[in-house]
Amino acid sequence: MARKIIVSNRLPIKVKKGAEGGMTFEPSEGGLATGLGSVYKEGQNLWIGWPGLFLQDEEEEQIVTQELEHESMLPVFLTETEIKEFYEGFSNETLWPTFHYFSQYAVYEQDYWDAYVNVNQKFCDQIVKSSNPGDTIWIHDYQLLLLPSMVREALPDINIGFFQHIPFSSYEVFRLLPWRKAILKGMLGADLIGFHTYDDVRHFVSSVTHIVGYPASQGLIETGNRNVMVDAFPMGIDYEKYAQLASSDKVKSIAAEFRKALNKRKIILSIDRLDYSKGIPQRLRAFELFLKERPDFYEKVTLIMIVVPSRDQVEKYKELKVEIDEIVGRINSAYRTITWAPVQYYYHAFPLEELSAFYSLADVALVTPMRDGMNLVCKEYIASRTDGTGILILSEMAGAAKELSEAILINPNDVNQIAEALFQSLTTPEAEQKPHMTIMQETVRKYDIHHWVKIFMDRLAYIKEMQQSLKTSLLTDGKQKQLEQAYAEATSRLIFLDYDGTLMGFSSDPQKAQPDTELLDTLTRLAADKKNRVVIISGRDHTTLGSWLGHLPIDMIAEHGVWLQKHETSWEMIQNLKNDWKEDIRPILETYVNRTPGALLEEKDYALVWHFRKVDLGLGETRAGELSSHLSYLVANRNLQIMEGDKIVEIKNIEVNKGVAASRWLEEYPSQFVVAIGDDRTDEDTFQVMPENAYTIKVGSTRSRARFHLKTFKEVRELLKNLNNLQE
């Protein structure tokens, strides 16, 4: 039975050693644990992760393993050194600051990287040992970026999803990592890669195209052997859980106690883990400014600031803690009275019921991170506001800001703006608060954690189906032997060969891709066999193709099917076409050439081609997208089509393509053996019209209608040489 195996750095349970040596096992309250709790306990599903502590001996590990097995969990045990170098080191001192745009804090230690690789491999070994064919592996977060490709290498056909819960930094920041390429290739082992926001998707795709060089289009990255989908999946919370908790008698009782202690003051609530990405000092300075400018609010408002301890032995965090303590002390010493402390500061975690009580009491939630993947605190606040009141002040740098436009969105660096937002929030009547809160509650309720899980899994199933529908098989030695045997036994053969990328490698200058001596010799020998009809089917103009190959006894199809020539005859057009449209389109392409250093315009009889092979990768892809969008309006009613090929954008008449032209040869020369080889998207038209028993071969990518694939044009040449040798 197919299962879902969830993999994260930490298991959704807290394992602790008791005072007398025993073990305690407590459920985690984390968003991921809550959200996926319903998934991993279904059927034979499994959760793999680190149990959260270092164990001294195998006996302790065995006890933990047996206990977790009852909870559908499987532990990965780490040594003290691995915890220090993999988790505290590379994950949190290298990746965390880089992804949150604090690259000045990033540490680049080779030992940390080595530990990161080793621990990811540990996780991989546990997955391989525990998984079955047909299982789905869902890997989570930045601690396990290498894991998808490791699992893919060990289990090539398994379904793999990956989700990153923190931001993905822009290419300019991400490229600072010395191990950037290995990290991207690690992530690309997944079939589906998810982020919270489209900005993160865009940054990831940009890094892949710049650093790895894989082409990407419409959320699909072509890795050469399969497509990887990248998409945004904003994570939600268990809305009903928080709404019901806030309405419970226990929480109401706690809230009543808190309210009594706070009198009738307005409450501003701030909840964060201790981290420099959360913007806590800036938030405090904004509140200090608010008090300075609004003395009429003295003794009428209290900021409840909850900071959950985190890594406070690390120097940067220790410094941050000192800074927060100093600012809180300064504010309270300047403004407090006998009965009022402006800031009530708690440096510890609270039980969930008490947090819910704080949410219920707070007139304003102040959530102002400098960077955050999503931030679920703001969603928990919204779900807990059962009376429909409350105002959310939210940093536009948090992923949640993309969904919660009814919040007051602020720049977390602008203390004046935050102070003004506090005044606006505290003076807005409840009647005006409710419509905004209602809209946000509807959003958070609809796009809850269960919706997030379902949408992600649906998209993972979709991309796997797409991969399978377009998947080709490698032309292995065994398959090639079958092809060669079919070739040898046939008395009539039709051989369709694309040119650029199939018979010749690409050149930065299209006119410098003339056939070399080896290729000319191979084609000459192939065409010399009277059983063979060799057809070069290319996008090149017929003049160039004729000058390069016209002396050979072969047929040619040029400009994707506009011009045809059998070796016994001269060139003819497939049909009467017009090219007066070029006068309107050419100036646009020339403009894009002038705007894009390295681009060039190629003019064919009935087509125009904008080349960007020599253009900086990111700029070329961007300009190509712009050009295609620009032209789409102009070609709509002109019987033209836009074709995006390998580093080109081509505009040509819609009536012709390689498939239409190839069909003529199939009708006129019915053959026992047919083979078609091509590397480009335009060759898909050729593959589509081939007979069912034809050998269709895609060069490079495995995403194709073709039956088989080869990796490079050199392998194509070797195949043709083998066929020639069969004639001797």
Helix and strand layout, with pairings?
Blueprint: E1 4-10, E2 13-17, E3 23-27, H1 31-40, E4 46-50, H2 58-69, E5 73-75, H3 80-99, H4 110-130, E6 136-140, H5 147-154, E7 159-163, H6 171-174, H7 180-187, E8 192-195, H8 198-212, E9 216-217, E10 220-222, E11 227-232, H9 239-247, H10 249-262, E12 266-273, H11 280-293, E13 301-308, H12 315-335, E14 343-346, H13 352-361, E15 364-367, H14 377-384, E16 391-395, E17 408-410, H15 415-426, H16 430-446, H17 449-469, E18 473-474, H18 477-489, E19 493-497, H19 517-528, E20 532-537, H20 542-549, E21 555-558, E22 563-565, E23 572-573, H21 582-595, E24 600-604, E25 607-611, H22 617-635, E26 640-645, E27 648-653, H23 658-668, E28 673-678, H24 683-689, E29 695-699, E30 708-710, H25 713-727
Parallel strand pairs: 1-4, 1-6, 4-5, 6-7, 7-8, 8-11, 12-13, 12-15, 13-14, 15-16, 16-17, 18-30, 19-20, 19-28, 20-21, 28-29, 29-30
Antiparallel strand pairs: 2-3, 9-10, 10-11, 21-22, 22-23, 24-25, 25-27, 26-27
Helix pairs in contact: 3-4, 4-5, 7-8, 9-14, 10-13, 11-12, 11-15, 18-25, 19-25, 21-22, 23-24
Give an overview of the whole structure:
- The protein has 728 residues and is of the alpha/beta class.
- The chain folds into four domains: 229 residues, Glycogen Phosphorylase B (Rossmann fold, 3-Layer(aba) Sandwich), CATH 3.40.50.2000; 209 residues, 3-Layer(aba) Sandwich (Rossmann fold), CATH 3.40.50; 174 residues, Rossmann fold (3-Layer(aba) Sandwich), CATH 3.40.50.1000; 72 residues, Trehalose-6-phosphate phosphatase related protein, domain 2 (Alpha-Beta Plaits, 2-Layer Sandwich), CATH 3.30.70.
- The chain has a nine-stranded mixed sheet, with helices on both faces.
- The longest helix has 21 residues.
